[in-house]
Batch of 4 targets.
Target 1
Amino acid sequence: AAVNTALKQRGIRTWFDQDRMEGVVAKQMQRGIDRAATVVTFITKRYMSKVDGDNEKDNCQREFLYAQLTKPEAMIAVPMHRDCSHPGLWKGPV
């Protein structure tokens, strides 16, 4: 949330899931990604586990896989913990 706030303060228009999760959530995420120039993903162990999990209805998984499918060149991964700082050690689709 702090990054989203900082970007908005600098005049950058964002789509942040906590601000826009109403109505049909999957459709809102899809629209947000479709309209985005850049998709920033904050990487944690929990996030990797959710993206790699078996729950096809998990919003993290849906969002990541859709972005990876439609805008792989626009994705930026931001490791949030020291133990996530080596992409070669990440598990699953992330």
Target 2
Amino acid sequence: AFLSPTLVFAEMASNSIRVVVGSKNIVKINAARDAFARCFSGREIAAEGCSAPSDVADQPMSDDETLRGATNRARNARQAVPGADFYVGLEGGCENTGDGSMQGFAWMVVLAGDGVRVGKSRTATFMIPPEVAGLVRDGVELGKADDIVFSRHNSKSTNGAVGILTHD
């Protein structure tokens, strides 16, 4: 079933919304909190993270695998922390293109507390620099590859690949 914020909003009696993100990464938790604050203006958003496995490779290498990872994180978060209004899975992925370059993107999956209604969205695609792409092809996770190439430390917990490439 499709997850419509408008319909869910009408069903909710409480002024606060509890969101559980299938990750302990503060960047992902804050992103989910910000997105829910925009969808549910005037409501208090309590967002928390939990360890929820993606059940895919540490660095998903296809659109399908990345979507599965986000879906699994949302479902596993629901199993780990019952009773929330929403569960969020966020997964970043890469994919080789036909011309030898590599693109990056992310999937977001939101499950309503009932575990039935679901919303999905994918980010825009961005091109990964060749030196980073080479490391990823060699089995290095994108965040670690960014750290190596751009002399950063734990960038995936701060501004991530997009932030680095856009000078954020």
Target 3
Amino acid sequence: MAGSDLKILVGLALAFAVGCLLNVLAAVIKLDADRDPNAVVLTVIIFYFLAPWPNIMCKRCGGDGMDFDGSGNVWRDMGFFLTGFLIVSGLALPLALQQADEIGLAAMVMSIAGGVVIYGSVAAYSHVFSNKSEF
């Protein structure tokens, strides 16, 4: 591993840790005067850990046998769709919890910001360290 790869890896690990910290702080710090902390916000982290797995699994399953129109890879498209579904669910859950008056506005903003940082670091890692010879 070259020195620049190590710097990128450390930077992405730091970004991932900051995203996790934002989500945990959104759940445990009393941000609003009229609300107690609510740990249900931590369920968002599950979506961001599950989000890259459809792409990982469907990239490995791709083949020529299930192309409907002959031009694309159905497995890869299904992986993109499921990943997008999990990302949107992870972003929409804090919004829905805030609208249901379970969490405050500050906790919602911290949770969404943490989720964006978490998935951004995972996506950057998979982009930077992907093996270009596989494609």
Target 4
Amino acid sequence: MNKLSLPIPSTCPEPFAKLMEDCWSAEPHCRPSFSNILDQLTAIEESGFYEMPQDSFHSLQKGWKLEIEEMFDQLRAKEKELRSWEEELTRAAVQQKNHEELLRRREQELAEREIDILERELNIIIHQLCQEKPQVKK
């Protein structure tokens, strides 16, 4: 199944990472309700996470941003590689189609030639039969 969601940075605190994963679940019925989300955010707040010095949190955010940018760069590189493979496969399919058409025409030419040869042979046989007159013994 295709999963289209943002990457979660490796240094993201576990409670936030779990909450994001739950909210991004592919199965809508598995996603938390708004009241559940609020409860989880309240629990995170009460856990003392926000007691982290602001500078430390900002440095974490910068790290997250760099990590996400790096992931997107890798995805772009993979996308470019896939596009290249797709173009290569498209060219190969066109070549194969052209080759099949060439073989089909060649087969048709050979069939026409075979019919032409058979027609000539039949004409020769008919001509020989018409020239040979039976000799009647008297």
